[in-house]
């Protein structure tokens, strides 16, 4: 049986797959940072949603990386979590 790690290594050899995977890195970093900050604050998605003025669904989508949020939305959520939003050139 092949493990996910082995399968991923094989997939990463395909240039098209690797490009698509790498393109998702900013979304993954955002989702990961929001989850870590929320957990560190010991808050639920519902609590973050209420304090930031968005729905819990918006928070869930942010954390799953399945949305294309505005900078304003990300900033509102980050503010509730005591975080700053910083943009960097790559």
Estimate the mean pLDDT confidence: 93
| β-strand number | 0
Outline the biggest β-sheet. none
Percent of sequence in beta strands: under 5%
H/E element sequence: HHHHHH
3D shape = elongated
Helix content: 55-70%
Q: Which assembly state applies to the chains in this document?
A: single chain
Specify Rg, calculated over alpha carbons: 16 Å
User: Could you say which structural class the secondary elements and strand pairing correspond to?
Assistant: mainly alpha
The total count of helices amounts to 6
Stretches where pLDDT is under 50 for at least 5 consecutive residues are none
First and last CA, distance: 37 Å
Task: Describe the model.
- The chain is an all-alpha fold and 90 residues long.
- It contains 6 helices and no strands.
- The protein has helices spanning 4-11, 15-23, 25-40, 45-52, 56-64, 71-80.
- Helix 4 packs across helix 5 (56-64) and helix 4 (45-52) packs across helix 6.
- The longest helix has 16 residues, at 25-40.
- The termini are far apart.
Descriptors:
90 residues; mainly alpha; 67% helix
Short structural description:
This protein has 90 residues and is an all-alpha fold. It has helices at residues 4-11, 15-23, 25-40, 45-52, 56-64, 71-80.
